[in-house]
Write a structure and sequence with these properties.
With 448 residues, this protein is α/β, with parallel strands linked by helices. It has 20 helices and 16 strands. Strand 4 and strand 5 form a beta hairpin. Helix 14 crosses helix 16 and helix 18 crosses helix 19.
Length: 448
């Protein structure tokens, strides 16, 4: 069997030799270049399975090589070697398309794990087990035929080939966790753990222990050693749902863990290295929270290397019939009954409803309707969907214009808040306002 071949690009002979020895011991052949020109010559002559490049080279920047490889050799994973603590360069490399990064002085354990992950990604052959694992159950597939969902599915494939942190934005119930799982399952970490945590569900006093673990006796109640979420996700993916709910002190510790790729359990004396891909999500507007000083800017830039936006269901209504069929099929299987039918008027109602709770609300609506119907036929009367309040358009006789305009404004804002479950960030976006402008109007109108 032909050995994998790696291209090493670094102008320091000692670093090149270290990388060559390490990769050779892993069964990987190497070619070494001391500058960009030599690297380009090698790329034109041979096919590589992995590239490791330094950031600073005598005749240019390693970022340029990353971009060239991304354009001309998109199947080739390239990792950047950066100076210790220079996270700006690491993030720049990831944004340019680097697979991952490793800091100087090079930690050989982390380097070996990076190489193993890259080679799994670039493997041309899949075992039967791999193929079976890639036939994911319907629950982990983003269903839909709309252009928006098709674009997201294509994006998850690209993101799966990268180890850069991904930030998934979108309203509650749109399927952000499903997208995160899809990225994980299509990537080289699919055999390892996918650990999902709702950051808003962890009590603040337990947060550090939950994330980083603790040693026996480190605090009252610590009767045994305990691994944290980072250790549980080692080699795999850690999904931070509702990351906006992290308190500021925890944001500092999370930032350090992500940057250093290591954690220290409470009561521990040594750092534990962890190889974790971070995917985070929230329904809130993180950029606005950074502006409001409610979320650290440095952490925001660290987790938001690549953003994936999941559109609300009302913006892809053509997907509703397919979603309805899938949900009803699943409910029938869970209840061991025949698949229910849905009437034309009921389906028409579902198609036109705004669904502020998105796919999750659609699922709840159908589950409730299935419980209410008698013969497995869901009609309009079983949906129990509220009618949106009509907008006030007529001006009362002798009504002052200012009072009338205030009434219209109040009604529009209230409606937007109700449709977004009183999520002010989402309501502001819906109204085309900044968060600060909406907050001012709420105060002016006395809306709590």
């Amino acid at each position: 069997m032909k050995k994998p071949l790696a291209l090493i690009v670094d102008d320091e002979p000692d670093i090149r030799e270290l990388l060559e020895i390490t990769l050779t011991r892993m069964g990987v052949d190497t070619c070494s270049a001391s500058d960009l020109k030599q690297a380009h010559d090698y790329l034109n002559q041979q096919t590589f399975d992995l590239c490791l490049t330094d950031m600073r080279l005598p005749d240019g920047n390693g970022i340029d090589l990353v971009r060239k490889i991304g354009t001309e050799y998109p199947q080739l994973p390239v990792a950047m070697i950066t100076a210790h603590g220079n996270m700006e360069s690491a993030i720049e490399a990831l944004k340019a398309g680097a697979f991952d990064f490793v800091s100087k002085p090079v930690d050989l354990k982390m380097l070996r794990r990076l190489v193993e992950t890259a080679l799994r990604l670039n493997s041309k052959q899949q075992t039967a087990d791999d193929q079976e694992d890639n036939a994911h159950p319907a629950a982990t597939i983003l269903l839909g035929k709309s252009a928006a969902i098709e674009s997201i599915r294509n994006m998850t494939i690209k993101l799966a080939r990268n180890q850069a942190p991904v930030y998934i934005s979108g309203e509650s119930g749109t399927g952000k966790e499903l997208a995160a799982r899809l990225i994980h399952q299509q990537g080289p970490r699919s055999k390892q753990a996918f650990v999902a945590v709702n950051c808003g569900a962890i009590p603040q006093e337990l947060m550090e222990s939950e994330f980083f673990g603790h040693k026996k006796g480190s605090f009252t109640g610590a009767v045994t050693d305990k691994d944290g979420l980072f250790q549980a996700a080692d080699g795999g993916t850690l999904f931070l749902d509702e990351v906006a709910d992290l308190p500021l002190p925890m944001q500092v510790k999370l930032l350090r863990a992500i940057q250093e790729k290591s954690v220290r359990p409470i009561g521990g004396h040594e750092e534990i290295q962890v190889d974790v891909r971070i995917i985070s999500a929230t329904h809130q507007d993180l950029a606005q929270m950074v502006e409001e000083k409610e979320f650290r800017q440095d952490l925001f830039y660290r987790i938001n290397v690549i953003e994936l936006h999941i559109p609300p269901l009302r913006e892809r209504q053509e997907d509703i019939p397919l979603l309805v069929k899938s949900i009803l099929t699943r409910l029938a299987e869970e209840n061991a009954t025949s698949e229910p039918k849905i009437g034309r008027n009921a389906l028409k109602k579902l198609y036109s409803h705004p669904f502020p709770g998105n796919v999750r609300q659609l699922e709840n609506t159908l589950e409730r309707a299935l419980t209410m119907c008698d013969d497995g036929a869901i009609g309009l009367e079983h949906l129990n969907l509220p009618e949106p309040p009509p907008m006030q358009l007529e001006m009362g006789e002798n009504q002052p214009l200012e009072e009338y305009m205030e009434q219209i404004e109040r009604q529009a804002i209230t409606r937007a808040l109700e449709e977004t479950r009183w999520n002010r960030t989402a309501a502001a976006k819906k109204l085309g306002l900044s968060f600060r402008a909406l907050r001012y109007r709420l105060s002016k109108l006395g809306i709590e």
